[in-house]
Fold this sequence. Notes:
heterodimer, A: 585 residues, eight-stranded mixed sheet, B: alpha/beta, five-stranded parallel sheet, three-stranded antiparallel sheet
Amino acid sequence: MAAWQAWSVMALAAGVAAWLFFLKVRPPRVNVASLLLWRKVLDQQREMSWWERIRRAVSLVATVLVALALAIAVARPGPRASAASAGRLLIVLDSSWSMLARTSSGDTRWSRAVAGARALAASAGSDAVAIATTADGLVEGPTTDSALVETALDRLRPSGGEGAAWPHVGGTDQVHFFTDGAVGRQLASDVVVHSVYEAAPNVAITALGVRPAATGQSSAEAYLEVANYSPDPQTVTLTVTRGTAVVFGQPVEMAAGEAVRQVIPLGDAGDPRIRASVSAAADALDADDEAVGWLPEAEGLAVTVVSADPGPLGLLLSRAPGVTPTFVAPGAYDPAAGHPDVLVFDRWVPAEAPTRPAMVVASPIAAPWLGTLGDEERTPHWVQNAPHPVLAGVDPLTIDIKRARAIRQDALGPIASSEAGTPLVSVRETGGQRLVVMGFAPGESNLAYAAAFPVLMGNVLEWLGRPALDSPRRPGPMLLPSSATRVVGPDGRPADLRTAGDHRLAMLDQPGLYRVEFGTAHGVVEVNVGSSDVSNLGRTTLPADVTSSAAGLTGAGRPWWLYAVLFALVLAAVEWWTWLRRITV
Amino acid sequence: MALRFEDDFLKKLEYLHVVSRKAFAGQNRADRLARKRGRGLEFADYRQYAPGDDFRHIDWKVYRRLGRLLLRLFDEEQDLPIYLFIDNSRSMSEDAKFDQARRVAAGLCYIGLAHLDRVSILPFRGSLGDETVPGRGKGRIFKVFEMLEGLQAGGETDLREAFKQFASRSRQQGLAVVISDFLDPRGFENGLKILASMGHDVFVVHVASTHDRDPGALGEARFVDLETGETRDIEVTPALAEAYAQAWTRHAEDLERFCGRYNLGYLRADAEAPFDEIILKTFRKGRFLA
Lengths: 585, 290
């Protein structure tokens, strides 16, 4: 509603209320024997008290105030109302997690921002309005349909997006940005910034890392970093659980601004899910009070090695942490037996393609599913074609290959070849099925003794069975390899997964553990909110002149018009009560 | 309204008689001692015989002993003229009030008739209405009932005009009982003064109802004067209601004070009070009945 409309409504309401006040309602008739005594009484009553003199005026003022408050609540005029009514309007909401911080009035920065956006959109009148967030970009409009804008504002929630690009909508005349300034952004000069910032104390887990142990006391450890972004010292309770078992729980006295770092040893066996939480008295943001970690080694990797003589391969897999190898002779291989995470065919391949991720080592024969055998090359010189996770950290200079045989197939992509072009290591990734083919055997090289051997095998097993993903990470969209087939969120429901060119784009909006499936293989992504940027609610990147601008627009706390309605109700109740007792007219 | 009394109650009424603080000369022999000597049974005095005296009252024994003609005098018991004025103006139209007034009139009338007093019922409002003289003897009470039942309330009150009309005719002095709410816009004083100045023994029976004393519900109301039809919109606050109640109390006190000053009897007959209690207790306590 435009400003002039709002003020007109209020003036009309006040006028109608006053008119109704003065409107004579026919009083009930009371027959009396005589007005003689009433005349005497009323003559005496001419000497009225000061309250008798003003009580009618008080009632009139109260009536007009009730009408005005209700009219204000309906019309909701705002100080910026006229500023926004000059063309197409883009309203951008900062969807950083820090916007969920509670303010002193009990509401959140986000609710303030939404209230401000709502007021701004309402003031746009007939101009088109577009709604966008920093995480999702444009979510509605441009439209003149206020219902669509209201619906969009109702459904929006903070979901991170600290690194997302600034939303652009063509043809906008004004851009308004509601933010707390927790995340610094380069904004165009014509963007009107409305601050919803209000300093708030907070305690957060700013880092949780689960990693192999640096010492030999345990196989893994969790690294926990907790910060007290509060102006006062307070007791913070740290709790770390593994699955459902509490592995660490301790209250910690933390000074103002202090960060505590804690390393918690984790045993060999146990649940791979690690969850850390903090609690404190002064804590304005809940989203960063929990963090999750994943210990892949604890999940275990079942590897079936089909080999007549595993040799050094068998020795390596037997000693690899988290790997459970099963050795099967080629004659005893049953494709339907068991469900290993990874199959390793050592110098032998079955006739049928395996249904599990597989590694083929120096196949002496061809198979239709594998490809054709090429020529054998003597002492090939290793050349890495392109960076690939399988070859990450593998030093080719330490590998001396006596001979290699090429296996060629269109779908097989060589990631390491000889200078003559013989594929040494090839990978295939089709329909979620991963395959690694080595053109040479450990016995036909010094691989078994080279430092690169455990690195290469570790990479292969991880890429096949436990694809490593960019983790931990913040909530937001995540680019995944095109072989990703499904992403399951922390709540057990599939996350939104879209194809974006050569990749898949998954929306990891909420913190927690996400299981990313690549056919039969899967990886886990840890998504956590806490960071020094998001969790430090006592600072803002906004300049001082805009830090309180939204307060006037949105009103502090709950939507201000609720207070107007409340005021009207209370005043009406008081007026009713006093009227019943004839205190007022 | 049916003005019928229970037999028991009538019996009780028969034992009562209206007390007049003055002795008046009556016209007929009755139960009441008159000022003049006459043909009563109780010896009073002697006086010298004069021609024209009834020689039957000469005391011959005294004549024989003293040789003087002395006449024996007796106290004469005569009837008492009772004038019952009943207000039938619009202000009395409230059922409870008017019924109470009529019941009081009927009760007093019965007592008077039972003692062979000469009762006149005079309804009044802005002027004096038709006088009803039922006759003598308690058997005439039904005529009184009939008359009172047919009485309708209406018109404005004007005590002065009504009593002026009453005074314009020569009447034997007697007991004047005025039954009214005394809500006369012109004031009750002038009317009562006229009545008192005629030498009557005046008794004021002030009939009032809760409606008169209390304005009732609070709030904005249009008050209508039943007599004049005048309306007045009044916002009745608790303070105003209290002031009205005080004004009514003052009005009643003024009336009582006026009666005291002019030696008039004053009795209150609240409309809500039981009638027999008014007659048997209140009126006796006020020495109006004995």
